[in-house]
Amino acid sequence: MDQYVINLLFVGASFALYVGIAIWARAGSTAEFYAASRGVHPIVNGAATAADWMSAASFISMAGLIAFVGYDNSSYLMGWTGGYVLLAMLLAPYLRKFGKFTVPEFIGERFYSPTARMVGVLCLIVASITYVIGQMTGVGVAFSRFLEVSNTTGLLIGAAVVFFYAVLGGMKGVTYTQVAQYIVLILAFTIPAVFISLQLTGNPVPPLGLFSEHTASGQPLLARLNDVITDLGFDKYTAHGGNTLNMVLFTLSLMIGTAGLPHVIIRFFTVPKVSDARLSAGWALVFIALLYLTAPAVGAMARLNITDLMWPNGTDGQAVQIETIQTSPKYDWMKTWQETNLLGFEDKNGDGRIQYYNDQNPRMQEIAAQNGWEGNELTKFNRDILVLANPEIANLPGWVIGLVAAGGLAAALSTAAGLLLAISGAVSHDLVRGAIAPNISEKGELLSARVAMAASIVVATYLGLNPPGFAAETVALAFGIAAASIFPVLMMGIFTKRVNNRGAVAGMLSGLIFTLVYVFMHKGWFFIPDTNQFPDTVAGSLFGLKSTAIGAVGALVNFVVAFTVSKATADTPQEIKDLVDSVRSPRGAAAAQADH
Amino acid sequence: MSSRNEPKVGSVEEARRKYWRANIRIIVWSLLVWALVSFGFGILLRPLLKGIEVGGTDLGFWFAQQGSILVFIVLIFNYAYQMNKLDRKYDLDEQ
């Protein structure tokens, strides 16, 4: 059967499943729309949170970023898992005890200020929309490949699907659909990894294969990888080449951003009890870890496979012939991905071979001069295609490729839906009902929620046409924004009674503006290309920090400003102190729920 | 309020205060471990661990790509377990 048909079958069948579940569990009331009636078991909620959490960034993009950079991008692995520890201990149980629907609602009540609530809405929308842009980038890559269309067309088709899908159900529909999506995406990610790990190391468990012996060479896999890529002038895979301060701050930004992202936090409003909120975070991390422990293996093994395909006679032999690429089925993936404009190769010196090496490396430039090479001829390899192309690179059967297609789309769709739900909740519940029209009917509130979803998709799609980076990098910026604006104010709201309304508003605004301005100055204003003032590199940037690392500094700004302003203004009233006391104790969580 | 046969721990306010202090203590210890395995072993202390070989590379690399994640899972389940005990001890669990 043709691969195109197989892809369509897998993608179509998985979509039919999600839509079926979404219709079966459709939200009837506003309570169900936002919080699924708080009837969700911690393990179910953990799986749904994992699907919500693992987006196009984790599934499609992350392994590729690790593959081409190596150790330094371990930040993604530690950052996107370490945040769950903060979530479980610093936020989730207390916010569940508080027992409302949205994050701005907590901010508004704890800081007894409608202004604080509105600023919370603003922070939430900025972080979430940036996040959706990253998802759209991933959706565009996936659709362009599997429907064999250009990247732009793929993006537009993806936007239509996300819209239809997210508008259909609220949290209840989304929760059960997301469990199905988790199963599809984890199978799609691990099955090819198992095959590849067996091929290369004989070990069927990819995370163990990563540290095992490479069968063909008899060396440890990572040592083998280091050898072949340094032969081609690239940095050692396992070495720390980048800036240490940036790596630490980037990891920290991802961690606190994880704990500050509204679409993840609202998941913990849906569990029945405070103790379940803690367990839910643990289960979510277990489900997430299955992918996160596999991803570095996928990255390293794919890098090795690609290098071997480009240098079939070894790195000291002759490079692959163009004729082989054109005729051998092992190289079909290069031709199909070339059509998406995300992969490119060009025989610059006309010797009928494609030399892939680091042409910035002086030693390689000497070798190139001796051999008559005129620069690296694998001219383009978009990091975001690595995971999707991986089963083809490893020559796996057609059904595995179809499964990966379905998995990538499941990852992107589930997260986009969760984010859109958080945005629409903030707009309809906090902005419309909370401020503009307090007497709006349930029906009107649901309608405004859906309008907000549609508007967000349009904005994210437009900006996704010229994304500020690869999917995972754009998503990392969203984390920086959430880290600097939402996390500090939630944490202070629970762990200190002293921070007051003015402190919270000043803290959120300064954290948000500081981070956003820094990101825009390095990535382009409103992410429009070529409007940036500084290059986004360690050496060229304003404070020697890349835009992805600035969120942690923004969070510090937020904390410092909030405390300073609070010290200079009136103390929090007694009833707020009582509220904080009640949030800290699990007793009475059922009553908090019954209020609604 | 309490119908259990546990030792009295003073007034409700007193219980809440002690409960919260115990909670903070568990959090601080957990976060120390959290930082040690990720920022410590995974990044800053990696040069110190380079003598310990793991499958073609060193222990710091393993912590950065796998070890820290496994420790995070243990930390959360341990926290959930400790807090359930604490909830019951101070009679603040959900009924």
Description:
The complex is a heterodimer of chains A (596) and B (95). By secondary structure, chain A is mainly alpha-helical. Helices cover 70% and strands 1% of the residues of chain A. Chain A is built from 25 helices and four strands. Chain B has one domain. Chain B contains two helices and two strands, in the order αββα. Chain B has a two-stranded antiparallel ribbon. The chains are: A mainly alpha (596), B mainly alpha (95). Chains A and B meet through helix 5, helix 11, helix 12 and helix 14 of A and helix 1, strand 2 and helix 2 of B. Chain B: InterPro entries: Na_symporter_ssu.
Brief overview:
The complex is a heterodimer of chains A (596) and B (95). Chain A is an all-alpha fold.
Q: What Rg of chain B, in angstroms, do the CA atoms define?
A: 19 Å
CATH class of the largest domain in chain A: Mainly Alpha
* Total beta strands of chain B: 2
- What fraction of residues of chain B sit in β-strands? under 5%
Q: Order of SSEs of chain A, N→C? A: HHHHHHHHHHHHHHEHHEEHEHHHHHHHH
Shape of chain B: elongated
- Sheet/helix structural class of chain B: mainly alpha
Report helical residue fraction of chain A.
over 70%
Radius of gyration of chain A: 24 Å
Q: SSE order of chain B in H/E notation? A: HEEH
Class derived from helix and strand content of chain A: mainly alpha
- SS summary, helix count of chain B: 2
